[in-house]
Amino acid sequence: MLDLEQLKTFVCVVDEGSFTRAAERVHRTQSTVSQQVRKLEELVGHSLLLRDRTGQNISVTEHGEMLIHYARRLLALSSQAVEALASDVDLEILRIGVPEDFDARRMATILAGFNREKPQARLETLSGMSTDLKNKLASGDIDIALVKREPDSGPCWAAWPETLVCVKGAQADPANGVLPLALFPQGCIYRQRAIRLLDVAQRPWRIAFGSHSLTGIQAAVACGLGISVLPASAVLPEHSVCTDLPPLPPTELALISRDGALSGLQRALVEFLRVELQSPAL
């Protein structure tokens, strides 16, 4: 394995063109510098430098020319790693969970805004189903989470009601037979609402399309692959509300955190999210 100290000495000798001047630059004896270069040559199995009779002036061999490029890159990378670790000392990691079906662009814009205000925070964002996010919050894998849930179903920092609608493709006209559904996976509250709605209405149904992605469900509905339940904010111009089905009770988007006191930055993120999520999506 290449030794960074030996590589540093080798680069210094090449740059100075002399063992003597290199020794002065690194504040070591000339014999120590020569010994380090010799050990490097033994390690790589090739002569790296050609010395004149006086030993004062040197030139680089073909193998030395090859190694010098790698040596400079390795030393630069080592320096960058040290700087990165040093700059991370004052960073606080904030781990936040976001529902898989939340508007990814909107959330990215919000979190980028927080990062600009609090550059000392390092955000780690995890997306997933709300049930999974609650489990990760309980196990300490994340600190803060946005979850979709039944209204008033537990403590939270803030909550926003979500109006739900049953949607179909603008040109779709589902027959009175078995209704094809485009739904999120098991555990999603929208899925539960859709199935409960149709069971109460005594309408037969089948799963025609499934996806974790909000954009995937929106596209499937727009193309007429199936009907779905979505928050009103996620209805696209290509969608049409199903007026022949009963209205749906609202759900809730809640901002929650794990047990225990929040740090200053965690509280700042909570307050930032409360304000930003209160504003309507553009």
Give an overview of the whole structure.
- The chain is elongated, with a radius of gyration of 31 Å.
- The model has no long low-confidence stretch (mean pLDDT 87).
- A 5-stranded mixed beta sheet has the order 4-3-5-12-6, with helices on both faces.
- It has helices at residues 4-16, 19-26, 30-44, 62-87, 104-117, 130-139, 189-200, 214-222, 264-278; strands spanning 49-51, 58-60, 92-99, 121-128, 144-149, 158-162, 164-169, 179-183, 205-210, 228-231, 239-241, 251-257.
- It folds into 3 domains: 4-87, Arc Repressor Mutant, subunit A; 92-161 and 252-278, D-Maltodextrin-Binding Protein, domain 2 (3-Layer(aba) Sandwich); 164-249, D-Maltodextrin-Binding Protein, domain 2.
- Strand 3 (92-99), helix 5 and strand 4 form a beta-alpha-beta unit.
- The protein has 282 residues and is of the alpha/beta class.
- The relative contact order is 0.13.
Topology:
Elements: H1 4-16, H2 19-26, H3 30-44, E1 49-51, E2 58-60, H4 62-87, E3 92-99, H5 104-117, E4 121-128, H6 130-139, E5 144-149, E6 158-162, E7 164-169, E8 179-183, H7 189-200, E9 205-210, H8 214-222, E10 228-231, E11 239-241, E12 251-257, H9 264-278
Parallel strand pairs: 3-4, 3-5, 8-9
Antiparallel strand pairs: 1-2, 5-12, 6-12, 7-10, 7-11
Helix pairs in contact: 1-2, 1-3, 1-4, 2-3
